[in-house]
From TrEMBL:
PANTHER family: BIFUNCTIONAL UDP-N-ACETYLGLUCOSAMINE 2-EPIMERASE_N-ACETYLMANNOSAMINE KINASE, ROK (REPRESSOR, ORF, KINASE) FAMILY. The lineage of its organism: Bacteria, Bacillati, Bacillota, Clostridia, Candidatus Pullichristensenella. Belongs to the ROK (NagC/XylR) family. It comes from the Bacteria. It comes from Candidatus Pullichristensenella excrementigallinarum. This is ROK family protein. Pfam families: ROK (PF00480). One of its GO terms (biological process) is D-xylose metabolic process. Transcriptional repressor of xylose-utilizing enzymes. Transmembrane segments: none annotated. SUPFAM superfamilies: Actin-like ATPase domain, Winged helix' DNA-binding domain. InterPro entries: ATPase_NBD, ROK, WH-like_DNA-bd_sf, WH_DNA-bd_sf. Keywords: Carbohydrate metabolism, Xylose metabolism. Gene3D superfamilies: 3.30.420.40, Winged helix-like DNA-binding domain superfamily/Winged helix DNA-binding domain.
Length: 416
């Protein structure tokens, strides 16, 4: 008869083994034993249970020499899938991933209706379509991770405020998705989701102290200290875009004056281009209501050598460099990673960022500034990683008795 202590140890061993496969798989049983330090008996027993539960798959490996064929174990891509959604003012991104954050389905749409009900319904439809596109039945999905901008109450799944979304205050995001789709849901700040993705498979895998900056129409930040995301006393840390750099500066979308975002963001470039058009400095046929299209037009003119448009990006790079320099002086990170849609135009502003660092930080020439290579799905993938972390922290299939369920099962979600 197994004791409670034995079951607890077995659950802990199962979590260690599963996490090892997430990070380093595919692996043979012998490789798992070497990496985890577990006994051969423990590895064999847990792997057998995981295979029976459908958590893992195994395939024979090709050998270059005679001998017994080893089998490589990997996370099953047809079971225990996760959905990630990035609710962002510039569009919605949805992904389906496995527990190793490998993307199976990816989609992106412009927002059709900015009222909160319309936006949430569009996101729910995208999720339903992604589940169908995966070819995996809905019962094999663990849950949904949602990344949002602004102020977030992660514990209660509520988006408290987003300055770039109208009518977006105290939105019970997780409650909506749980009731609408009957799947558990977790909520995460968008830049925290992106830094998780960066730590998992991006430029900052080995860094324990880093700054991640999301640069698009707005400006956000996430801070990792000693390998953990720093969220502050009540989850409000990282509002880099709303650090005041000039009290007499232009009005920001948050209502304050002289914020970093009012000097370094895509929306600032658009605003100054429109002002320049009124003054006769810019002759581009700006649409005034299609932000991405206008930004592409301005960038094209800058690359073709137009002094006014080129200056918009260079000025943004200068202010961004000043902000990053202050972060480096205060926080001493190993690396600063810049992600977000505006990295597509990094050739127009990144040199100015580096020049400011060289002249304003004593070791500026040695500061590692990198552009994220993860693309537009980074926040959505990061949201699935947050969900996966909750799964793992809750134990792998408690008592080895069923599918992974990090925050209640599907029946729990229906009752909420």
């Amino acid at each position: 008869m197994r004791t409670a202590k034995h079951e607890t140890m077995r659950s802990q061993n199962a979590s260690v083994l599963f996490q090892c496969l997430r990070e380093f798989g595919p692996l043979t049983r012998h490789e798992l034993q070497e990496k985890t330090g577990l006994s051969w008996g423990a590895v064999s027993s847990i792997v057998s249970d995981f295979l029976a539960m459908g958590l893992l798959t195994e395939k024979p490996m090709q050998l270059c020499h005679p001998g017994r064929t080893p089998f490589a174990l990997d996370i099953n891509q047809q079971s225990n899938l996760l959905i990630g959604m990035d609710l962002h003012a510039q569009g919605l991104s949805c992904v389906v991933t496995d527990m190793r954050a490998r993307t199976i389905v990816s989609s992106r749409e412009n927002i059709e209706n900015f009222c909160r009900t319309g936006l949430l319904e569009q996101a729910a439809r995208m999720i339903e379509e992604a589940i169908l596109a995966s070819g995996v039945e809905a019962s094999k999905f663990i849950g949904i991770g949602v990344a949002v901008q602004g102020t977030v109450d992660t514990a209660n799944g509520i988006s408290l405020h987003s300055p770039h979304l109208p009518e977006w205050n105290d939105v019970p995001v997780c409650e909506f998705f749980q009731n609408r789709l009957h799947l558990p849901c977790v909520l995460v700040h968008d830049t925290n989701a992106m830094v998780l993705a960066e730590k998992w498979s991006g430029k900052a895998r080995s860094a324990r102290n880093l700054v991640f900056i999301r640069l698009d129409m707005g400006l956000g930040m996430s801070l990792v200290v000693d390998n953990s995301i720093y969220t502050g006393a009540d989850g409000g840390a990282g509002e880099f875009g709303h650090m005041v750099v000039n009290p007499d500066g232009p009005k920001c979308t948050c209502g304050n004056y002289g914020c970093m975002e009012a000097y370094a963001s895509g929306r600032t470039i658009l605003q100054r281009a429109r002002e320049g058009k009124k003054m006769g400095l810019c002759d581009l046929p700006l649409t005034l209501n299609e932000e991405n299209k206008d930004l592409q037009m301005i960038a094209r003119a800058a690359r073709e050598g137009s002094a006014f448009e080129k200056g918009l990006f260079e000025t943004m790079g200068m202010y961004l460099g000043v902000g990053i320099a202050n972060l480096i002086i205060m926080l001493n990170p190993e690396i600063v990673v810049i992600g977000g849609d505006l990295t597509a135009y990094s050739d127009l502003f990144l040199d100015n960022v580096r020049k400011v660092l060289f002249h304003n930080v004593w070791n500026g020439s040695r500061i590692q500034i990198e552009l994220s290579s993860l693309g537009t799905d980074a926040a959505a993938v990061g949201a699935t990683l947050m969900l996966a972390e909750q799964v793992l922290s809750d134990g792998i299939a408690r008592q080895m008795g069923g599918l992974l369920r990090p925050i209640g099962n599907r029946e729990d979600a229906q009752e909420q």
